[in-house]
Design brief:
Chain lengths: ~100, ~170
Amino acid sequence: MSPLKLHLLLAAALFAVGLAGALTRRHAILVLIGIELMLNAANLNLLAFWRYGPNPEALNGPLFVLFTIAVAAAEAAVGLALIIAIHRRYRTTRIEEIRRLHG
Amino acid sequence: MTLPFALLAGLILGGAIAAVSARNRVHSGLFLAASLVGLALVFLRLGAEFLGFIQILVYVGAVAVLIVFAILLTRDADSPRERIANAPVSGILIALALFALLAWGVLLWNPGPPPAAIPALPVKALGDRLLRDYVLPLQAVGLLLTAALIGAAVIALPPPRPGAPDAGEPKR
């Protein structure tokens, strides 16, 4: 199997693990951990395609990864601030108990 | 499959599975850090040394530590242990189905021959591209980071107590 396919399979497995974590855990921070894993799997895909794809000297893959890392850092900061604010307000971070906006 | 890749894949997937299934939340954060270190090593092996070090700096150094801090700050009076959802089967099934779909696509796909030489990732060329072709997205990301950090600080501020003088308004 070519190394590109191996990296893509690893990224798919990492994405699936992150998705399972985000879907099954009931704690807001653990959902955030799952989302971080999924973002990192996407980064791995971008770099694998840059390394083994055609036209690598255009550096599009690494540039995408740079921007993704910056956006993911902003997302993590805002998400954790929201979780801390929710914890202060409701004394819980379990997402099934935060039902103020429940329809 | 080479042995280093297999070891790194085991570290990444093992750390990720342990992170999303650990009952102790602090352990989850630390397993996440281990998984991200493995991913940074894969980046290094792919020839993207700069991005591997960025990954260690930003993810392991900042995001994972931030997550562990948030876990410790929001620890309830009871134990930090937590039960998994009552019916995690459907979530796991959805994830497995997604992995099967992606793996099916990857295995059926027939890419061309990989390039012979490892492409170089000169940091100088990366900076050239960033400041020439991608200067507008770069500025947008800078604005986004500034807004996100200010917003995070404002959101996490303690709410003003009723009766306490509001610091934001001038006193009459």
